[in-house]
Please model this.
Amino acid sequence: MSIEDNLNAATTLLTFEQVRTIFNLSERTVRRWVKTNKLKSYRLGGRLRFDPSDVGEALRERSSR
Model:
């Protein structure tokens, strides 16, 4: 099962740290992606959360380059 398959099968939102790990990116880059709408996020209790399907889509876009 690929990372994309795992993301699509997930039923909970991902944390900021999980997204950083998936993309192997710095905190600054993930925050920039959120700010520029390259990666959709949600605020829950003041913390960023990410829908696995949105992360999977961003991952596909990044890998198609």
User: Anything to note?
Assistant: Helices lie at 3-9, 16-23, 27-35, 52-63. Strands lie at 14-15, 42-44, 47-50. Residues 3-63 form a domain with the Arc Repressor Mutant, subunit A fold (CATH 1.10.10.10). The chain has a mean pLDDT of 88.
